[in-house]
What does this fold into?
Amino acid sequence: MKKARIILHVDMDAFFASCEEAANPKLKGKPLIVGGTKKDVRSIVSCPNYLARQRGIKTAMPLKKAMQLAPDGNFIRGTRGIYSFYSKKVREIFYKYTPLIEPASIDEAYLDITEVLKPFGGDAYKLAFSLKEEIKNKLNITCSVGISGNKVCSKIASKQNKPDGITHIKPGEEKKFLDNLPVERIPGVGKATLKKLNKYGIYKISDIRKFDKSFYQEEIGMFSAYLLNTANGIDEREVTVYEDYEQKSLSKEITLDFDTDDIIYLEKELYYVLEKACSRLRKKNFKSRNLTVKVKYEDFTVNQKSRMTDRFSNIEMDFYEDSVEMLHMLLKKDKSIRLIGVKFADLTESDDTVQEDLFKQQDKLGRLVKNIDKIRKKYDYDILKFGKTFDI
It folds into this structure.
C-alpha cells in the first residue's frame, strides 16, 4: 500500500518588508511600505509589513494612497539583491529537512516530508515548527506553514494563521477544514471567476459541491475538475524537486515616470525593458521565440499582445521590431500608458547555435551583447546604453 504523503507549504510572511527589516532593524516598529519613497508618487506598493496592512495598505495599491493611510510610515524602494539572498538562505534551511523541495516563487515552496519524519517521532507538526523556528532565529524573518496530504490544501492552510503560524490538516479532515472558507481562498480563483461563482450562490468552498462538472464547464468557464477536486480536498500533483524545476517564462516590466501616449518615449522604454529581459535570458542560458508585450493604462486596466517570432534568440535586437508592432497595436486614442513590460515564454536552453544563413550577423550580435553583459556586470547596468534608449 502506497504511503500517504505529507506536504508542507511554506509561505514567507510579508517577505520583501521582512527582509528589509532584518537587514535594517531601525525600520521595525512602524508601518513599512516597500515600493518607493515618498517622492515616488507614481509607484505602487510592492510589499507592506503587517503594521502597514493593519492600516489597510495592500500590495499593488498606489503609493500615493498608501501615504494617506500611513503618513508616519517608512517608505523605501526595494534593496537590490536582498530578496534573492534571503530566499537562498531559506532554501538552504529547507534542505536540512528534506531534499524534496519545489520552489513556487521567491517566497514560497512545497516540501515533501513523507520520508523524513523519523527524527521527529513521525510528527509533521514538530518538523514544521522546528523548520519555522530555525528560519526565524537564524534569519530574523518569519514564515507560515500549511501541512496536509496534498499541495493545494497545504497552500490554503498556510494562509490561515499568518504571520508566524502553522496550520495542520490531518488526514480525512480536508473537507471539514475547507467547507466554511471563502471560495476566493482557492488558488487561481480571481476577481472575474469569483464574480461568476457568487452569481450562482457559491460563496464558501462547500458551495462548490452543489453543482456538477458540466455546470462549471458551461457556466463558469473554469476547469471543472480542479474546482471540484479542491472542494473535496483532492490534489494528486507531486512535489517537483528543485533540480527538475523548469522555468517556463521570464518577464520584465517598469512603471513609467508619467502617464503618456508619446510613441517615441514608449518605444525607448520598451527597448530598455526588452534589453533587461534579454540580459536575464542570457544570464540564465535561455532562448525564446514566444514574446508578449504588456501595457497598463492610466486607469489601471491591462492589455497585452503575443507573437511567435521566426527563431529562438536571447538578443534584444531580434525582438525589437516585433515588440514595437505589438506596442502600436496596444495604443488607444483615449488612454495614456503608465506601465510597459515584456514576457518570454516557452523557454529553451541556449546552445549558442544559429541558423546557417544568419550565422555571420548573429555571431557578431551574440559576441557584442555578451561583451556588454560583462562590462555591465563589472561596473553598472546603465554604464552602456544603445541609441534607442537615449533621451532626445
